[in-house]
Design a protein that fits this description.
Distance between the termini: 23 Å
Catalytic activity: [(1->4)-alpha-D-glucosyl](n) + phosphate = [(1->4)-alpha-D-glucosyl](n-1) + alpha-D-glucose 1-phosphate
Bound molecules: pyridoxal-5'-phosphate
Number of helices: 33
CATH architecture of the largest domain: 3-Layer(aba) Sandwich
Subcellular location: Cytoplasm
CATH class of the largest domain: Alpha Beta
Largest sheet: 10 strands, mixed
Protein name: Alpha-1,4 glucan phosphorylase
Pfam families: Phosphorylase (PF00343)
EC number: 2.4.1.1
Length: 783
């Protein structure tokens, strides 16, 4: 696309869509017009991609969440037209950064699980695999987080309020989803292009929006019942109205169940309609042409639904079960009991009376097999899908799919030896490991152009952009003074950029020469943000007691949303904000340490935070974090990890060396041994300084505005301390103090970060996707 073509296109689009000159438009409108011009440019290649995959086997990623973030820069970089477009816009007098900021994040996910889906789509298209995403077009994405007096206050995220240039409505492909005989809605697909790096393959993310079948009741309107006249449309649209803001907990609500059935049924009908339109003779071919990945159990209703759809076509149950099993695979994302989806039978049958019999039939088939295998009846509770009034989605997903995968080596091992041991003993080949990954296009190339440029210079090529193992070639340069100096300068620059951003958005002054120690992830007790806060509180006390010591300057940064109904998580946010207020305003310490809790952490904020980190906080209680992917983004950007032997941390230190990271705390077997004979108060009393920190929750040091929140935090710690914060504190403090001490020798410290970056190759989602494609989906690339 030449510069002139682009300029003409943009100016033309502005007249066409806004009836105005481009130069008269506000930033949101200008963004939209530029987006439309880019869409027009990429559509021919998009059509060509659909054609080239034509009749081959394809993979479908079904997910209730796709945490996409912004698309403009990503699309430009992947299309390879970023330079030209920026230059043209500059010539037109447009501030590209402002234009970029005008795009609303597509926040259609909560955290890691949704972001993984987004990274997979990027890798799938980049590697030229036929991979489509299927999900829900939520009208409101993850809520916006505001802090009011230090408390989290949620605000709706109407991300579609301003037209979205990346979504194309495809009314022709609309289908009807039937919850029950008199409860049906229309599912209308909106397609988003997924541009692979290099632009050769453009795949599709298809998001379904719910609409009424009869959108307007004219009779009611005629009778003056104006609200009634649009009631059906309102009720239908409720289904795709909001993303449930939960992470790692099961909501168990009627609307949530409807959402799950809504998008899985629509997606499968879409596949069936295309399959039939292509004129296949036998439904046995369905599994030869489709690999359907269930991202957690949120889309697990695809199992009974596909059986139902096949039976409607005259296929008998056994054959339908077989086709379904051969077509599907399931990813398990958690070991937390509270996150496993279990539906109440009464609720389920009230919402989906026509689907329930298929689950009964699947369960009956399982019972026949348990008898056949002579499984002891005492063991059946480890298998049965229907138990009393409960329907276990994970068990159905293991039983009726071809492959089940965990998301990091330690997680998969725990599935095999503990949580799903009975299943693993029965089907020793079914449970696989696919360690998660992240796309280096977004998390390095795009968000850290300075470091990307250095890597390309040093390696002499940009191959790493699609082949991240190339980073290993940097490792021999760890002792090159000039290289390290450049690496440190770039980190300093990213810290400076973040400091300015934080100054503007959070109104806190931070020092780019201090250690940037960052914990960004959903707020959850198992992730132990509170332990990091206690370290800061203890450090504050120590500095106050000994102000003349040569303390290392440090900035502690948090970013996290708490589920709106998660009381303790919200108490932790309030506590950290109070702690930040105290630290930042105390002249005895605020020249040494600062604390910032950034508001509204999301993908776009993340893109500024990861590149500026010196220290990555990955301090979950061992055995609780399935993988983590934030840990990988930090590593890729050259931070060291302070972390437990949990999730992908285990593999991170396997790649980069324990000596280049700060591993502390109990390991899984120690946690297991400790449970049942744990005395949190004894742990607190034996750890110097800890009692003062814990007591400060309730002795008037901090103000919770008389909510009683801090007392509740105190009680939960002293009574139980479920996540062993008080037990692991001492070892965490040692690791943290070691970091402060190591930082005094900057070269030695940053050398560790550099080695981490050089060994991040394994954690590209390209590697993960390649494994899914070859070992689970059996799909092949298209040249
Ligand atoms: C990567 C990412 C996550 C996942 O972080 P974890 O530390 O693995 O929990 C969550 N939210 C956003 C916005 C991310 O980019």
């Amino acid at each position: 696309m030449t510069s002139l073509q682009l300029k003409d296109r943009i100016e033309g689009k502005a007249y066409e869509s806004h009836g105005q000159s481009f130069y008269e438009l506000n930033e949101k409108e200008q963004f939209n017009v530029v987006g439309n011009a880019i869409m027009e440019y990429l559509v021919p290649e998009w059509i060509e991609s659909k054609r080239k995959f034509g009749k081959k086997k394809q993979a479908y990623y079904l997910s209730a969440e796709f945490l996409m973030g912004r698309a403009l820069s990503n699309n430009l970089v992947n299309l390879g037209i970023e330079g030209e477009v920026k230059q043209t816009l500059e010539e037109m007098g447009v501030d590209y950064n402002a234009l970029e900021d005008a795009e609303d994040d597509a926040g259609l996910g909560n955290g890691g699980l949704g972001r993984l889906a987004a990274c997979f789509l990027d890798s799938g298209a980049t590697l030229d695999y036929p991979l489509s995403g299927y999900g829900i077009l939520y009208q409101y994405g993850i809520f916006k987080q505001n802090f009011v007096n230090g408390f989290q206050v949620e605000e709706a995220d109407p991300w579609l309020e301003h037209d979205n240039p990346w979504l194309i409505k495809n009314s022709n492909d609309a289908v009807i989803v039937e919850f029950s005989d008199n409860d049906k809605v229309e599912a209308v697909p909106y397609d988003m292009p997924i541009v692979g790096y290099g632009g050769d393959t453009i795949n599709t993310l298809r998001l379904w929006k719910a609409e009424a079948i009869h959108k307007f009741n004219f009779q009611a309107f005629d009778e003056g019942k104006y609200i009634d006249s649009v009631k059906a449309q309102n009720e239908a649209e409720t289904i795709s109205r909001i993303l449930y803001p939960n992470d790692s907990t099961n909501e168990g609500k009627k609307l949530r169940l409807k959402q799950q059935y809504f998008f899985t049924s629509a997606s499968l009908q879409d596949l069936m309609d295309n399959f039939k339109a292509e004129g296949h003779k036998s439904f046995d071919d369905f599994s030869k042409l489709h690999s359907i990945q269930l991202n957690d159990t949120h889309p697990a209703l695809a199992i009974p639904e596909l059986i139902r759809l096949l039976e409607k076509e005259g296929v008998d149950f056994e054959r339908a079960f077989d086709i379904t099993q051969k077509s599907m695979a399931y990813t398990n994302h958690t070991l937390l009991a509270e996150a496993l989806e279990v539906w109440d039978k009464g609720l389920f049958t009230s919402v989906l009376p026509n689907l329930y019999p298929y689950i009964e039939e699947i369960n009956a088939r399982l019972v026949r097999e348990l008898k056949e295998w002579q499984v002891d009846k005492d063991e059946w509770h480890n298998f049965l899908i229907i138990q009393g009034n409960s329907i276990h989605m994970a068990f159905m997903s293991i039983y009726a799919t071809r492959a089940v995968n965990g998301v990091a080596a330690i997680h998969t091992d725990l599935l095999k030896t503990d949580v799903l041991k009975s299943w693993h003993d029965m089907f020793p080949d079914r449970i696989l490991n696919k360690t998660n990954g992240i796309t280096q296009r977004r998390w390095l190339l795009q968000s850290n152009p300075q470091l990307s440029g250095m890597i390309t210079d040093l390696l002499g090529s940009k191959e790493w952009v699609t082949s991240l193992e190339q980073l290993k070639g940097l490792e021999p340069m760890q002792d090159d003074e000039a290289v390290l100096e450049r690496f440190i300068d770039i980190k300093r620059e990213k810290k400076q950029e973040l400091s300015e951003y934080i100054q503007f958005h959070e109104e806190v002054d931070i020092d780019p020469d201090s250690i940037f120690d960052i914990q960004i992830k959903r707020l959850h007790e198992y992730k132990r943000q509170l332990m990091m806060a206690f370290y800061i509180a203890d450090l504050y006390n120590r500095i106050k007691a000994d102000p003349d010591e040569e303390w290392t300057k440090r900035t502690f940064i948090f970013g996290a949303k708490a589920a709106p109904g998660y009381y303790i998580a919200k108490a932790i946010i309030k506590y950290i904000n109070e702690l930040a207020g105290k630290v930042n305003t105390d002249p005895d310490v605020n020249g040494i340490i600062k604390v910032v809790f950034v508001e509204n952490y999301g993908v776009s904020y993340a893109e500024r935070l990861f590149p500026a980190a010196d220290v990555s906080e990955q301090i979950s209680l061992a055995g609780k974090e399935a993988s983590g992917t934030g840990n990988m983004k930090f590593m890729l950007n050259g931070a060291v990890t302070v972390g437990t032997m949990d999730g992908a941390n285990v593999e991170i230190v396997e790649e980069a060396g324990k000596e280049n990271n700060y591993i502390f705390g109990m390991e899984v077997d120690e946690v297991v041994a400790k449970r049942g004979n744990y005395d949190p108060i004894a742990a607190m009393k034996r750890t110097e300084g800890l009692e003062q920190v814990v007591e400060s929750l309730v002795d008037g040091t901090f103000n919770d505005n008389n909510t009683g929140m801090f007392q509740d935090l105190y009680n939960s710690l002293t009574a139980e301390d479920q996540y062993f914060i008080l037990e692991d504190f001492e070892s965490y403090r040692q690791a943290q103090d070691q970091i402060a001490s190591d930082f005094k020798d900057q070269k030695a410290f940053y050398r560790k970060g550099f080695i981490n970056m050089a060994n991040a190759g394994k954690f590209s989602s390209d590697r993960t996707l390649e494994e899914y494609a070859t070992e689970i989906w059996h799909v092949s690339k298209q040249q």
